[in-house]
Every structure is written in C-alpha cells, then in structure tokens.
Amino acid sequence: MISELPTLWLFAVFAVAGAVVVLASVKATGLADVIADRTRLGEALVGGILLGAATSLAGVVVSVNAALDGDASFAFSNAVGGIAAQTLFLALADLLYRGPNLEHAAAEPANLFQAVALIVLLSLPICAIAGPDIAYFGVHPVSVVLFLAYLTCAKAATVVGESPMWQAVETSDTRHDEPEDDSEPDKSVKEPALYFVALVALMGMGGWVISQVGGTFISRFGLSSSLVGSLITAVVTSLPELVTTLVAVRRNALQLAVGGIIGGNTFDTLFLVASDVAYRDGSLYHAVDTSNLYWLGTGLLMTAILLGGLILRQREGPARIGIESVLMIGIYLTAVSVQVWS
C-alpha cells in the first residue's frame, strides 16, 4: 500500500509518477500536432479538445479518488487549483517565446470562444455554492448543467474552428496554422491515434498514484486538503500542460499551445462533475470552504485577463511579454501567498 511506504519512498513514488505523466505528455503533444494536420481539424481545435482532455486525465483521476475517499476539499481544490496553474503556464510560455507576445501571434477565433466558454463554466460552480444545498441521488443539479454546457460549448467550438464568422487582423507577427508536411492529410490517422490513446492510459495510471500519495501527505504531515490539492497535486498533474505548451511553442505550433491550455482548463471543469458524482455525502459544492472558493475565483479572474489579452493582442509589453502575462503571474503568486499564510 502506498500509504504505508516510508517517507523517502513516498516522495520517490510521487516523483516517478509525475515524471511518467510528463514524459507521456511530451510525446502526446507531437502526436496531437500530427493528428491535427492529418485530419485538417486545426491546431486550436485539436489542442483545445483532444490534447486538453488527454493531459487533464491525471488530474481528474486525483479529484475522483479524493471524492470517493470523502475529501471534498481535496477533490475541489485539485480541480480549480489546476486551472489557475495551467493558465499561469501560458504566461511562462509567453516569457520564454522569443517572438512577439504569444497571445498576439496565436490569434485564433476558436481560442477566444474556448476562453469565453471557460468563464461560463467556472461561473456555474459559484452559483451552486451560493445556492441552496440540494442534491438528487447525491448529485447537485448544477453538475448536470455543467456537463451539458461543456458538451454544448465543445460542439460550438468545433463550428467556430471550422467555419469562423470573423478573422483576427493579420499582422507580420501572426502565425498561421498550417500543416508542417503537405502530405500529412494523405496519411492514415489510425497509428498516431492508437499511440495517443496508449499514452493517455499511461497518464491516467500516473494520476491514480499521485492521488494516493497526495492523500497520504494530508494524513501523515497534517497538511490541509486545500493546500495539497491546489499547490501540490494540482501543480504536478498540470505539469503535462506546461511541458506540452513549451513543446508546442518550440515547434511553433502556437495555436496548439494556447488552445491546449484553454481547452484543458475547460475540460478540467468536468473534474467537479465527476467529483460530485463520486462524493456520496451530498453536494460537493456545499462541502468545501472559502479557500476552495478563492482558487475558483482566481482561475476565473486569470481566464478573464487571458481573454482580454487575446482580444487586445499587444505585440510587446513589460519585459517583452504582454501585460496580461504580467498580471496573471502577479495574481497567481498572490493566491499562493494567501493559501500558504492563511
């Protein structure tokens, strides 16, 4: 049993599981780019839905396991803490990107719509928390609405990606989403798709191990569930998003990088749906405390600022990055300080 391991072995298992998740995600990013080229679905759409969901799998396993164990705060904070951390990763990618502001170069209607959808989806849990404490068969009605809203937004994002009703103004710094190899559409998508599925399964297994170690951290070291969920397991299970973002930027697949983060965050809202179903002591939303709500608000605020940056499309800002990236870094560091010292 993982919970009975000596402390040193516990940290070693945690590190290995995190490394497996990260390495699998690196390969998955390259395959997602190939799939985007061969299916002609586009980097923003594949990044936002396929890659975003795949790299989020480890996180959903952590939240569901925590909910099954009856720790609502751990399940909730892992989900919303991951959204905030992954949004921060775009700011870090912007800092490392040698071209103009990343949000300027990756102008794409599908990414804008995904950001709007994420704000809508993050607003629903706030309504649930502020509303009456009700649950039918142990599930709050907002979880059903959240799931249906995600499906609706995903379908609408596909329409926006395939038939956009407007285009961003093209500049000399705009990076177009074009296949790297013109022969890609003539090749079969089956082989990379099967390989992609195998990597997703590997990431899910890593997520289960991380959830077990995270629960042991809470009981053995007396840490709060909110702290472990938002700053330890959420960050570790979000590392695939950091790696895939940096790999995508290095491949100059900027729409894939931005779409992967926003789409991954959109998928992460389903962590709350799955956790609410797994949590058997009533409504998950009414079993959490204000620290969990704080991280939800942080993710919502950072998403709104990111959307503003995608619309503003500033070429350069402070320290050669966009002002939205500066603000997102500042907001996240403030949230960490509040969590640690509260």
From TrEMBL:
Main localization of the protein described in the UniProt heading: membrane
Membrane topology category: Multi-pass membrane protein
Record-level GO cellular component terms: plasma membrane
Keywords, alphabetical: Membrane, Transmembrane, Transmembrane helix
Annotated InterPro entries: K/Na/Ca-exchanger (IPR004481), NaCa_Exmemb (IPR004837), NCX_ion-bd_dom_sf (IPR044880)
Keyword Transmembrane (UniProt): yes
One example GO MF annotation: calcium channel activity
UniProt subcellular location: Membrane
Region (Disordered): 169-188
Membrane-spanning intervals of the chain: 6-24, 45-68, 74-97, 109-131, 193-211, 217-240, 252-273, 293-312, 321-341
Pfam annotation, one family: Na_Ca_ex
Domain Sodium/calcium exchanger membrane region: 9-128, 195-341
GO BP terms, alphabetized: intracellular calcium ion homeostasis
Superkingdom, natural source: Bacteria
Name recorded for this polypeptide: Sodium:calcium antiporter
Record organism: Palleronia pontilimi
